[in-house]
Amino acid sequence: MERKPVNSPSAFYNWQSTWPAPAKLNLFLHVVGRRADGYHLLQTVFRFIDRADQLHFEPRPDSKIVLATPIPGVAADTDLTVRAARLLQQATGCGQGATIHLDKQLPMGGGLGGGSSDAATVLLALNHLWQTGLSRAELEKLGLILGADVPVFIHGQNTFAEGVGEAFTDVFLPAATYLVLHPAVNVPTAAIFGAAELRRDTPTISAGDWHFGDGHNDLEPVACARFPAVAEHLAWLKQYAPQAMMTGSGACVFAGFAERSQAEAVFAKCPADMTAWLADGLPEHPLASI
Question: Is the dihedral of CA 191, 192, 198, 199 positive or negative?
Fold first, then answer.
């Protein structure tokens, strides 16, 4: 059976559909404090880009959640897609099951939010397919249980995020093409946030005072010091795009260009041993209307 395009009205989403889980970039990321429970207080702008993992789902005759495409080295019970599906079952009392197929395109430990995006897409998709009826706001609360970045993918808009990443003020972002470089390292988020040298006192700004292009990434100096490949890729990119920075806790670095031809020109200069790609910024998450 032909799969329906994922930008169809929600009524046409079904078990044959392919569901995207797009990457995000942090256009800046400031650590502005730390709560008593150890969680860091952040300010950032999330932008979705048109590079994505892809998921599809099969109904089951039982209530089991089965990941048909496990990631090497990741136990099924700890995989975020499985955890998201089981969390939705528990929260709604749903007795239906599903087999999950994940076509993984986004690198792990890259700062692109791949695992969080996958989990968000599972919640959005199965809430629709199982007809469990949760609102987007209720799904965001569930997503926060799974990880700080999950709610923004459910929220579905490019947004200025605060707190631990769950308070949103939506922003308009101009069209841009991004050149993303992926150093061949997996940067563990916990190691970067746990570093003693991490700056945690960047002054706060209001969402209304932020302008496109403002800010920096407080996690970048830590990741560059601990993972030389990140520093090397960033230094290379800054030769051609001084605005380049790291996304999330790394390892990927990126630069945005107003014209795609500008991004293509720098992309053409990338050394053969450097993993790189181009991606356009999205006006919203592909599943924003589901």
Answer: negative
Q: How far apart are CA 108 and CA 93, in angstroms?
A: 31
Q: How far from the centroid of its chain's Cα atoms is residue 148's Cα?
A: 10
Q: Yes or no: say if 244 and 234 are a contact pair by the CB < 8 Å rule.
A: yes
Quote the mean pLDDT of the chain: 94
Kindly state the DSSP code that residue 63 receives in the 8-state scheme.
S
The catalytic position among 79, 118, 149, 218 is: 149
Tell me the pLDDT tens digit for each residue of 174-225.
999 999 999 989 999 999 999 999 999 999 999 999 999 999 999 999 999 9
| pTM summary value | 0.94
Going along the chain from its start, the domains and CATH numbers come out as: 10-170 (3.30.230.10), 177-280 (3.30.70.890)
Cβ contact 67:112 at 8 Å: no
24 is catalytic: yes
In the set 24, 53, 79, 118, the catalytic residue is 24
- The number of beta carbons lying within 10 Å of the beta carbon of residue 3 is 12
Instruction: List helix spans (H) across 130-246.
Output: 136-146, 150-155, 189-193, 220-226, 228-238
The encoded tokens of residue 65 equal 């959640």
Q: For residue 11, what are the contacts with CB-CB under 8 A and spacing of at least 6?
A: none
Residue 213's identity, in one-letter code, is: G
Give CA 192 to chain center in angstroms.
17
pLDDT band for position 11 (cuts 50, 70, 90): low
Active site residue 149: yes
- 8 Å CB contact between 227 and 185: yes
Give the pLDDT confidence of 102-161 residue by residue, as tens digits: 999 999 999 999 999 999 999 999 999 999 999 999 999 999 999 999 999 999 999 999
Tokens of 48: 């979705």
